[in-house]
Known about the structure:
Blueprint: H1 3-16, E1 29-35, E2 40-49, E3 52-61, H2 64-77, H3 82-95, H4 128-148
Antiparallel strand pairs: 1-2, 2-3
Helix pairs in contact: 1-2, 2-4, 3-4
The protein binds zinc ion.
Amino acid sequence: MALEDLYREVILDHYRNPRNRGRLERPDASASGVNPLCGDELAIELALRDGVVSDVAIESQGCSISQSSASMMTEAIKGKSIEEIKALVSKFRKMMSLDEGEDAGFDPERPGAVLGDIEALQGVRQYPVRIKCAALAWNTMLEALQETA
Ligand code: ZN
């Protein structure tokens, strides 16, 4: 299967079967965000224990890119420390060309090895309007984490 088809499959899978949907009973931090260009809306709740994201839940509606990016992100941040999450966000932003610097999110020799499913979003950077869709969950998650600082 061509890599682009594989990426499309991964995005569709997260869109159709979004991970970590819903709400938490007792969130330690929360934030919500919108992407008015596309109409994507998203609310995130985080539970933290000893500086680690122990649980995460998302309620969202919008396009397939925003939804699947949110789903992938929840899988990627669960069980990670705030420092690890910041490093992950940095790799994501470089992969999406939101920040300058080498694309640290992708090793062409080993697809999926660095950022896992998230790498499937790299095709989106060819469509600047959609980058905002992909980034919504990540920006909102950072906002929620700031609450805890
Ligand atoms: Zn969108």
